[in-house]
Amino acid sequence: MTSPVHGSAGSHAAGTRTDDATATSSPRTGAPVLEVEDLRVEFRSRGPVVNAVNGVSYAIAPGETMAILGESGCGKSVSAQAIMGILDVPPAHITGAIRFEGRDMLQMGAEDQRKIRGPGVSMIFQDALSALNPVYSVGDQIGEMFRAHRGTSKKEAKDRAVELMDRVRIPAARQRVDDYPHQFSGGMRQRVMIAMALALDPKVLIADEPTTALDVTVQAQVMDLLKDLQRDTGMGLILITHDLGVVNEVADRVAVMYAGKVVETGTIDDVFTRPAHPYTRGLMSSIPVLDGKGQRLNPIVGAPPSLARIPPGCSFHPRCPMARRGDGGRPDCTSDVPPLREVAAGRRAACHYSEELLHG
Amino acid sequence: MAADTTTGTAAGTGTGAGPDDGALLRARGLVRRYPAGRAGLRRRSVSAVDGVDLDLRAGEVLGVVGESGCGKSTLARMLVGLERPDAGTLAYRGTDVTRMRRAEHAVMRRGVQMVFQDPYASLDPRMTVEQVVAEPLAAARTGTRADRRRRAGELLELVGLSAGMLGRYPHQFSGGQRQRIGIARGLALEPSVLVCDEPVSALDVSVQAQVVNLLGRLRDELGLAVVFIAHDLSVVRHVADRVAVMYLGRVAEVGGADRVFDAPAHPYTRALLSASPSVDRAQRGRLGRREVLRGEPPSPADPPSGCRFRTRCALAVDRCAHEQPLLRLAAGDDPARTVACHRAEEVLTG
């Protein structure tokens, strides 16, 4: 809700801003196409308020792949759902700014928002079977994008649906355009959903656990497809996942989320080779390495907190091996909330003691 | 790792060694079919498991990996007696349990217990943890109520929870804690075999490692044999002594975990390994270099003739369509590994 950044000097203007997002070393970074700033989502219904997203900021540039990495309940999907306007308000209560090409979607009317969702930002989901309508053919569902947004005729919409199915490499598209979702395999259904999401040439695609329900061989095919489509269209890709292996393969940058907050962001090289947050480091050492063997895993103790009862101070402190009570004026992890701050060039972390992790 | 005595496989049948090598569980030619509607007047069926031979030795962890629909969960359910095989034999400590009467099944039930994938669905929400963990003891009419309570407390401590939690209900626990409760229940009858069907895949990454470490500790402390079924190759490599790779209801290869992962002998194993993303930065880009599998797994209702993998295999030749490859020792290979591929030698050398 501060100054619009569209048309500004792009990433180099980021120093004046408070979010973590734009100051990166990604070679592809131009002006961000989508920026989320201090996004907060609360759910208020019976019982305690659930703080699903607690001040998340990130931005994505054209052609860039940003991963949002976190475990269940960290708020990674809810933040994306807020962008797509698919949360029911109320009970959800959304504040902050979601700027698409500089315009804050949260300040727009419903009709203006609708014009962005689809041609501007679109989304695919983990479970393609439940995201697709079982009683319409896939051709109808893909074609509906053209009819709803562009007023295309039914026949033309079907032709465009076939083109898109070809583009996402569904074999024999012309023969299968009238088939129903249940007649496709899991991987093919995911391709149908990708076709729908790409129908209006979005500038940003949000992929929420797009391959989690798929087998690894099919997962690799779908990730290949997404990367190829991104190369062709120059869209920004926000990849929401818990899978560190997938992030390692495809992301340029990563934002690690925990308990509704971004705890660390940076280029994938920086974050994966030298984590600046103890949570990230804990995740990395929880994972057995395929090529290594016999090493003992070092899991993080405990479990992620309930979003209705987020611990005070650093929300990770009850599980953190580095957590300490402040002494001699040093920050107290149990009461002082660590801000997301720059800890090295182009990277930010929300830990009082990141420097200890980074420098020994 | 258990004493490895399967040199008998050199005979080429792949049926493992003689009867006295200490296999706790021995499956031979296990088949499980499900009805799948009709084709005209004929009833059709799907072979979810189609002729599986497998040995589980005392104290070892046997990993079973494969993608969805490969039959690994059906196999697990047969191993614990939740489903009866339609053909083949399953011997527990040398006794064929497939021909047993119901009453005799109790022997195997005590000896082979199961841990389920979903710790949310597999615990009755209306039962306290004490009831959940002591249920197998009560069902087996073991001890008095007080005995069972004490035992349930011990079991909770064994899996890293506290006996003070006995009165709580499942919803008061996190996913990882619930899976520990499921494991405690599985251990109640002091089984010699624990069959774990995707025990960590419903858990968060940071919690998975806790449960993996727990299973490793229980194996060491109790001398348990574990069948660890998973689709996550890196987890299986971490925990398993031996690994069986399944594809469409059959075993593609089985052998020592290091051997199978370091030098796969079946083209499917090789493709599976190369498609698994690594978290190691130095490995980034390996998916781009992976062996691309054509298409998707065929339907088990209509499996390809001969080798079931041939429709996706880059090495497939005519023979693969006509002749089903049996588990055998490939020339020059580690005798503890068998593979069901006509061209395994070429996979190994190239």
Automatic annotation (TrEMBL), chain A:
GO biological process, one term: peptide transport
GO terms, molecular function: ATP binding; ATP hydrolysis activity
Region of interest called Disordered, as start-end residue ranges on this chain: 1-32
GO annotations of cellular component type: plasma membrane
Protein topology in the membrane: Peripheral membrane protein
Keyword Membrane appears in the UniProt entry: yes
PROSITE patterns the UniProt entry points to: ABC_TRANSPORTER_1 (PS00211), ABC_TRANSPORTER_2 (PS50893)
Domain ABC transporter span(s) in chain numbering: 34-284
Primary site of residence: membrane
Compartments where located: Cell membrane
One Pfam family, short name: ABC_tran
InterPro entries: AAA+_ATPase (IPR003593), ABC_Ni/Peptide_Import (IPR050388), ABC_transporter-like_ATP-bd (IPR003439), ABC_transporter-like_CS (IPR017871), Oligopep_ABC_C (IPR013563), P-loop_NTPase (IPR027417)
Top-rank lineage group of the source organism: Bacteria
UniProt biased composition (Low complexity): 13-24
Keywords, alphabetical: ATP-binding, Cell membrane, Membrane, Nucleotide-binding, Transport
Family: Belongs to the ABC transporter superfamily.
Designated name of the protein: ABC transporter ATP-binding protein
TrEMBL record, chain B:
Keyword Nucleotide-binding attached: yes
One Pfam family here: ABC_tran
GO biological process: peptide transport; transmembrane transport
Highest taxon, organism lineage: Bacteria
GO molecular function per UniProt: ATP binding; ATP hydrolysis activity
Residue ranges the record marks as coiled coil: none
Name of the protein in question: ATP-binding cassette domain-containing protein
